[in-house]
């Protein structure tokens, strides 16, 4: 039985390991390790209460790292989400997002935001299905609104926003 629970600091090592493994089909081992640096331990020290993992028989199936904005308390933000490739398209990420939406609502948030890379068309499709709108960009790539250099030179992003009813 799949079990969802709040994340804990001790989950950090397994999240790093999961990123290195789950992304190895689409990236070199080195690039997958570099990706895991987007989730340093501090997220599990300071935002575990708004982050979730789903596991089965002690093994990770997926995780979501998110938080309520310190500067904009009405906004929640999904920083990173990942699902075991063997378990994708089975509702794991939907469950993680719905748990996050619930606690964001309880915290008084009215919107959820996140970003993805324009090449990550799977993420764009997923977020659209989850009710997110695409924020207008400064140019388009394959019909997607893109914010150029959003995260630094050459680091373009597609930005999403979803109202919390
Ligand atoms: C994006 C990701 C998190 C989706 O996880 P998942 O568990 O497969 O998603 P779910 O099964 O919960 O799907 C929820 C909805 O999104 C849709 N969806 C999922 N992946 C999709 C895709 N690649 N393209 C289009 N729609 C997609 C599903 O069909 C489902 O719709 P429905 O419930 O209306 O039928 C997963 O593919 C993943 O880990 N990708 C790599 C990491 C990544 O890109 N993260 C996001 C950026 S940090």
Automatic annotation (TrEMBL):
Residue ranges of coiled coil: none
Domain of life: Bacteria
EC top class named in words: transferase
Key words, A-Z: Acyltransferase, Transferase
Listed EC numbers: 2.3.1.-
Domain N-acetyltransferase: 2-151
Protein name, UniProt field: Acetyltransferase, GNAT family
Annotated source species: Saccharopolyspora erythraea (strain ATCC 11635 / DSM 40517 / JCM 4748 / NBRC 13426 / NCIMB 8594 / NRRL 2338)
């Amino acid at each position: 039985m799949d079990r969802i629970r709040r994340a804990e600091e001790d989950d950090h090592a397994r999240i790093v390991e999961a990123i290195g493994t789950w992304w190895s089909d689409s990236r070199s081992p080195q690039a997958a390790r570099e990706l895991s640096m987007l989730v340093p331990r501090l997220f599990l020290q300071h935002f575990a209460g708004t982050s979730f993992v789903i596991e089965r028989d002690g093994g990770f199936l997926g995780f979501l790292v998110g938080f309520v904005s310190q500067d904009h308390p009405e906004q929640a933000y999904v920083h990173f989400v990942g699902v075991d490739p063997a378990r994708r398209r089975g509702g794991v990420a939907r469950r993680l997002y719905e748990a996050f939406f619930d606690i964001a609502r309880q915290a008084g948030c009215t919107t959820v935001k996140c970003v993805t890379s324009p090449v990550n068309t799977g993420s764009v499709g997923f977020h659209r299905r989850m009710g997110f709108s695409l924020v207008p960009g400064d140019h388009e790539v394959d019909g997607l609104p893109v914010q150029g250099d959003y995260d630094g030179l050459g680091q373009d992003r597609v930005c999403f926003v979803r109202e919390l009813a």
